[in-house]
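In this section we walk through a basic example: taking a raw amino acid sequence and producing a predicted 3D structure, encoded as discrete structure tokens. The instruction is simple. Fold the sequence below.
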Amino acid sequence: MRYPGRIIKTVILLLFIYSNAKAAGMSVVQETSNSLNVIEQAAGHLVPSPYMVIPFILLLLMIATGPLFYKHFWGKHYPKLSVILGLVVVLYYILLMNDYNSIVHTVTEYISFIALLSSLFVASGGIYIKIDRKATPFMNVLFLFFGAVISNIIGTTGASMLLIRPFIKMNQNRIKAYHVIFYIFLISNIGGALTPIGDPPLFIGFLRGVPFFWVIPNVWFIWIPAILFVLAVFFVFDSLNKKENVSKVEINYSGKIEFRGIRNLVYLAVIIISVFLDPGVFSWVPDLYPFPLGIREILMFTVVFLSFKRADKEILRLNEFDFEPIKEVAYLFIGIFLTMVPALQIIAEEARINRDALDAGTFYWASGGLSSFLDNTPTYLNFLSAAMGKYALNVNIKSHVLDFVAQDVIYLRAISVGSVFFGSMTYIGNGPNFMVKSICERAGIEMPSFFTYMVKYSIPILLPLFFIIYYLFFH
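The resulting token sequence is shown next.
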């Protein structure tokens, strides 16, 4: 398979950018969380020109229109287009702004992002789950609810990659696009709102000082009705789906669940444990600065190699495993990560200036709306910083974060719910969304376009829910 080599070349290019930034005299203390340090940059008034948001808008438009209007060109050249638009932003920051910090932080954040997604993708690809039961609406509801719950234990990415193939196989005689859309809503996004493991912004909040068990008691009463609402809508959709493959042979279901590849559960456990191997969590974890990878990323890339090298080839065949989905995510998201830096810094500056005018509803809609199109982790940090600024507290000091949590939870709750829930609004709202879409397309499922996803599904189904949540909890 040739795609891992291409992805490795992209990572090498990122390392080259990183090393050149260092050689040019950049002095940076790497964030222990490897987060984009856009807040500190905005506070220093290193705000880019608004025109530098154009590369991000262009990339977003191409992601939306490419598969529809110039599918062959897009399928062949999207890696180049994504990287080129990203390099436009890199050159602007290095040559015109003399700002190496933003690029280095973006590169390290991207490497952490792709290390997590690729390790979970490959490790889960070596697990085969077959549910030999008839796919009824009620069975599908139970499946999706189970996936939403365990996304808080193994993360939305881990749950998405582990369960998507058995979900497709269980519904193979009646699968439609809406099955996958609701899967993305529940398992890839909303489900993971209860723990810091569930979704990246919550984990970054934990690294910054938000107590690990703060999330569950402050979000569960929003999470439960949201999950039940989406499941109820799905049940209606699925009950109306009468499509079955016409067959003269009656299918007898054993009711059994087949599980193969138990060794890969060890790999998944290693990945989850490695998430916490950060100097900001445990002081004994070594900081490998100036090397752009930490112990966490080294372990994750090791899992990628070992889990694929030692995988059961029969399981890979049964799962129709290949590297196309992770290749697509790797190339598109390097462009997204780089081109969104100017937008994030402009947003951070505006939030800093107007923080006194921001209330809980504003934090909810702003963090949510931006998380629909931008990476929700730095969006979460931007608005957490602005909310703490209302109390003259600093997001970079853990004791200040603890003081903030003790003083007023409404802002943090609004930012947490908005950042996680709204990631389901678009394909690029959260990393697993695009991977699930790509896996399903490889399985022959015709997925809706970027705009159709929003117009037909997320806007009419999710926005009313999000308005109800706003009115009940943040109005």
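Looking at the output, two observations stand out. The chain has a mean pLDDT of 85. The chain has 19 helices and two strands. In the next section we compare this with other chains.
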